[in-house]
Each structure stands twice: as structure tokens, then as C-alpha cells.
Design goal:
The complex is a heterodimer of chains A (160) and B (394). Chain A is α/β, with parallel strands linked by helices and 160 residues long. Chain A has three helices and seven strands. A three-stranded antiparallel sheet of chain B has the order 1-2-3. In chain B, strands 6-7-8 form a three-stranded antiparallel sheet. Classes of the chains: A alpha/beta (160), B mainly alpha (394). The interface between A and B is large, with 35 and 39 residues.
Chain lengths: 160, 394
């Protein structure tokens, strides 16, 4: 597995930060603690060559602790390799440092993540909602947010 | 004595504006005709596709994906089914015919998307004729879509494991004629635009972005290749059998609107070449993988046997369970890297589906490309970014 070179380097430099490394369907996922996420991302960009942040999103594991997982899908345009970083974020406070200083593209992705999942990105230059209206209450992608919207009865199917 | 005024005027553009290609709102701060700051407001078309997909079975999500980039629905279907197949671990079981048809239709979709891009981009800049010519060619593709999938825009044609139906008789010949005729049409567009001095004035040096800035802001696809980055997922991380096709990846160094225009036209030529190769490869054979657990049984079995009927009923009503895990699949959609990140918790519903829409990320580059330039350039740059609000807002 060619990705392992950077995983080994990451382990050597940030060993106390790494929670686990998983291989699934040929994809490498490294789960790290959130405290040094900016340092780790900078390391991945500069040493690992992962210059493109393909996607940043979050997953709500309601009922588990920590509740949220922020996911960074990285791509190296030179070696054409992918790797995924994940950082757990606890329900209380729900915040993590912004990586928009590492990749400019993270700006809107983090805004979306705040808007739909309610995770605060500390130090974000423009922390506004992006898809939902400014005065919206709640974060729709959370698992405890009803799919039919707030204050509505769930759809029961057609009566006829 | 003349007083130098530096009053900033704030004007609103959109969300109902023909040049914003949908419901995009821009707040422009102008100093005379110079744009000092532009703030995009999006979300007017937000339908909660990601939330909805968590409450649908894996097959029921496919029609939702059509409605993301509705100008390139088959590419969206393709990205999604590839992600589900990877999650299931059945990528290598997809039959050859299904793979070839997927490539064929993905390239047809690229032509469809690029034709709308050229039509609207040219119309915004003032070339009405090109719009009519492009829509004339696009009409043929929508007719082909209708024959193949039954719908002119929202195709919903690919399935997890293969295709929903085989190509109807005669469509292969029509597609071959279309692909063979495409280069002549492209020459026609080029004849109208490339040497046109108004077109050159409006596009050369407009909306320039360097390779470093483009990568930092996350621009992918034609926008990145026009800035000199030689990267195409079809060639570099091939999927659906793209490694068996010969095609060139055009790259330009200038990074301006004119370079992106020339690059997309070249991509259209390459797409018609890939279509011809796919048509040569197309041999009769099965169109669905042999995975009864996830694939719907053939229609004759459903109608004639009780086992087939039960099988069909189970998959339609309950869906299929997927092993716990997560995958990210990126494909080269007409507008850039289209990514699907799927998380499964072992149930029949996706636990989380995240779409990485190329237009959303590409639009983020707009302020960098227009600030400090003329107001008229905003129109040209929106056109060259080739955005679709359906996938920006999801």
C-alpha cells in the first residue's frame, strides 16, 4: 500500500495523536485527536504532498461518544493518491480548529459543516450559514433533527 | 475643482437574474465599474438531498442524484452507483457491457453539459447564434436520453450492479452518427467564436487564476487544467474501465477564460472520440452483475415465477444491507471532481451520504477571479466557471 509511507511518517511525528489506522476497500483512514488537527493537516500538505482538500464533512454518530466525526478527504495531485483523516468531536461544545488556513477551500466546506451539522470551527474567517437561511434555528443534518422538518407530523404515506 | 470620489456602491445581482445560471445571488460592491468585493449567497435551491438520502434505501437515492447537476444527470448517477458498488465490494463484478455503456453515456453527458455551458456562456457575452447552434445539438442528446432512459433530463438509468435496461435497438447507430458529426459542429462554434475579436476581448486575460491559487481554493476539472495542472481522474484514477480508452487530456497554461473555453472545446472532441471507441467495444452481453443480493431479477422472472416476484419485492421494499464501512469515490464529472462519500452502518439505508459537488467548490473561486476587475467580467467569469445551482445547493 503506497499510502503507508505517509502513515508511517505521521505515526513517527504525531504518535500520541493517532487513534487508529483503518484500511477498507483499498482506502486508508487515519483517525486522529482533534487538538493538533491544524498541525497534522499542515504536515499532510507540506510533507505528504496532499495539496488538495477534496472534501470536508462531518458525520453524526448519535448515541456514541464522542458524537461527531469531522472527515477530511485529501488528495495528492502529484502522486494521485487519496487518504482520509478523521477527527472525533464531542457533543459538548462541538468545536474544532479551522483548517481554512491550510487549504483555502475549507472555508465554504466548514461553513456548510457548521450550517448543517452545528460544529463550530474555531478561528474561521467567515462563520456564517451558507445553505440554510441566516435566521434558521437548528442544524438539519443532525440525526435528532426530523427529516420532515421541525414542528411537523411525520409523513404517513398516501391515505388513498 | 474636481473632487475625487471613492464612494462604494453596493448592488444586488440575482437570485433571479439570467446571467447567474440559476438562483445565485451576488452582492457586488462597486467603485465605479470596478468590482471591489463580491459576496455570493447560495442556498436558494437547497432541497436537503443529503438528509433525504439517509431515509432512502440505496436504490432509492439514485433519482435524487439526478437532481444535483441536472445538466449532467448520468455523471451523477455514475458517481453514486460506483460508490455503492465499492462499498459493497462488487466493483470487479460489473459486466463488461454495463461498464462500456456507462462510459459511453458519461461522455455523452459531458457533451450535453459542455454544450449548455458554451451556449449560455456565449449568450451572456452576446453571441446569440452560438446558443441556438448548441441547443440544436443538445436537443439530439436529450432525445437520445429519452430513448435510453425514458426521461429527457432526470435519467435515473444506472443501477447498483449495472444498468436499469439495455440500450434500445438503433440507438447505438444514432450515437455513432452523432459522435462522428460532433467535430464538425465544434468547428462551427470555433468559427463563430475563437477568432472573433469581441469574444477575445471579453475572455483573454479575464478571470485569470494561477495553478497554486486554483489548487488552494479547490478548483477541479477544466478550470484546473486550464491553469496548467495536468490532472484528469479518468486517466489518473480510472474507474468503470477508462484505462482501456485512448484519449488526450488537454492542458492550457494561461488560466484565463479563453483558455478554459478552448480546453472545454477540446474535451468535447475527446469525448466524441471516447464515445466512438466505446461503441466499437460494445458487445452483446449481460448488463447486470450476478449478485442476487443487491441486483433486481430480470423482468421475465418477476412476471413468470413466484421466486422472482418475491426476490423483486424484497429488494424493492427492504433494500439490501451493506457492510459497515466508508468509501469516497471521485469521478471526473463535466464540471470537475464529483465525489461521493458514503458511510454505512450495516443497515439498508446510507448512514451518511456527502456529495462533493464540483460547482460548489469552483464557485468559491469567484471572488478571487473578479475582484479588482470590471463588472462585465463578472458575467464572463460566472459563465466560465460553469456552475449549476442544483448541485451547489443540493
Amino acid at each position: 500500500m503506497s499510502d503507508l509511507a505517509i502513515v508511517e511518517k505521521l505515526k513517527a511525528k504525531f504518535s500520541p495523536e493517532i487513534i487508529d489506522v483503518v484500511e477498507f476497500r483499498g482506502e486508508t483512514t487515519v483517525t486522529v485527536k482533534k487538538e493538533k488537527i491544524v498541525d497534522i493537516c499542515t504536515f499532510m500538505r507540506d510533507t505528504g504532498g496532499y495539496n488538495l482538500l477534496c472534501d470536508l464533512c462531518s458525520v453524526d454518530y448519535l448515541g456514541q461518544a464522542p458524537r461527531y466525526m469531522v472527515v477530511y478527504n485529501l488528495y495528492n495531485i502529484t502522486t494521485k493518491e487519496r487518504i482520509r483523516l478523521k477527527a472525533p468531536v464531542e457533543e459538548q461544545g462541538a468545536q474544532i480548529a479551522t483548517v481554512s488556513t491550510v487549504w483555502g477551500t475549507a472555508n465554504w466546506m466548514e461553513r456548510e459543516c457548521w450550517d448543517l451539522m452545528g460544529i463550530t470551527f474555531v478561528g474561521h474567517p467567515d462563520p456564517r450559514r451558507i445553505l440554510m437561511p441566516e435566521d434558521w434555528v437548528g442544524h438539519p443534518l443532525r440525526k435528532d433533527y426530523p427529516v420532515q422538518g421541525p414542528d411537523r407530523e411525520p409523513y404517513q404515506g398516501r391515505l388513498s | 475643482m474636481a473632487v475625487k470620489s471613492s464612494e462604494i456602491m453596493t448592488i444586488n445581482m440575482g437570485p433571479q437574474h439570467p446571467s447567474t445560471h440559476g438562483v445565485l445571488q451576488l452582492i457586488l460592491e462597486l467603485d465605479g465599474e470596478i468590482v471591489r468585493k463580491v459576496t455570493p449567497h447560495i442556498g436558494y435551491l437547497h432541497r436537503g438531498v443529503e438528509k433525504l438520502s439517509e431515509h432512502r434505501t440505496y436504490h432509492q437515492v439514485i433519482p435524487l442524484t439526478d437532481r444535483l447537476d441536472y445538466l449532467a444527470p448520468m455523471s451523477n448517477n455514475l458517481g453514486y452507483v460506483l460508490a455503492v458498488e465499492k462499498l459493497l465490494g462488487i466493483t470487479d463484478q460489473i459486466p463488461e457491457r454495463a461498464k462500456v455503456v456507462r462510459v459511453l453515456l458519461a461522455e455523452l453527458t459531458r457533451l450535453k453539459s459542455h454544450l449548455v455551458w458554451l451556449a449560455t456562456h456565449a449568450l451572456d457575452i452576446g453571441a446569440m447564434t452560438v446558443f441556438l447552434y448548441c441547443f440544436r445539438e443538445r436537443e439530439v442528446i436529450t432525445n437520445l436520453y429519452e430513448k435510453i432512459s425514458g426521461a429527457r433530463m432526470t435519467s435515473n438509468y444506472f443501477r447498483v450492479g449495472g444498468l436499469s435496461a439495455d440500450l434500445p435497438a438503433g440507438v447505438e447507430q444514432e450515437m455513432r452518427e452523432y459522435a462522428e458529426g460532433m467535430p464538425a459542429h465544434i468547428e462551427e462554434y470555433e468559427g463563430l467564436l475563437t477568432g472573433n475579436r469581441i469574444w477575445q476581448k471579453r475572455t483573454i486575460g479575464v478571470g485569470t487564476i494561477t495553478a497554486e491559487a486554483a489548487i488552494d481554493i479547490g478548483i477541479t476539472g477544466p478550470g484546473l487544467r486550464a491553469s496548467g495542472v495536468d490532472w484528469d481522474l479518468r486517466r489518473d484514477n480510472p474507474y468503470s474501465g477508462y484505462e482501456d480508452y485512448k484519449f488526450e487530456v488537454p492542458v492550457y497554461q494561461e488560466g484565463d477564460t479563453f483558455a478554459r473555453y478552448k480546453l472545454r472545446l477540446e474535451e468535447m472532441r475527446q469525448s466524441s472520440l471516447i464515445m466512438l471507441q466505446a461503441l466499437d467495444k460494445l458487445k452483446p452481453g449481460p448488463i447486470l452483475a450476478d449478485c442476487p443480493r443487491v441486483v433486481l431479477p430480470p423482468k421475465e422472472d418477476v412476471v413468470n415465477t413466484i421466486e422472482g416476484l418475491i426476490h423483486h419485492f424484497k429488494i424493492v421494499t427492504e433494500g439490501f444491507k451493506v457492510e459497515t464501512g466508508e468509501v469516497y469515490v471521485g469521478i471526473e464529472a463535466p464540471k470537475g471532481e464529483l465525489g461521493y462519500y458514503l458511510v454505512s452502518d450495516g443497515s439498508a439505508y446510507p448512514y451518511r451520504m456527502k456529495v462533493r459537488p464540483p460547482s460548489f467548490i469552483n464557485l468559491q473561486g469567484l471572488p478571487q477571479m473578479v475582484e479588482g476587475r470590471l463588472l462585465a467580467d463578472v458575467i464572463a467569469v460566472i459563465g466560465t466557471l460553469d456552475i449549476v445551482l442544483g448541485e451547489i445547493d443540493r
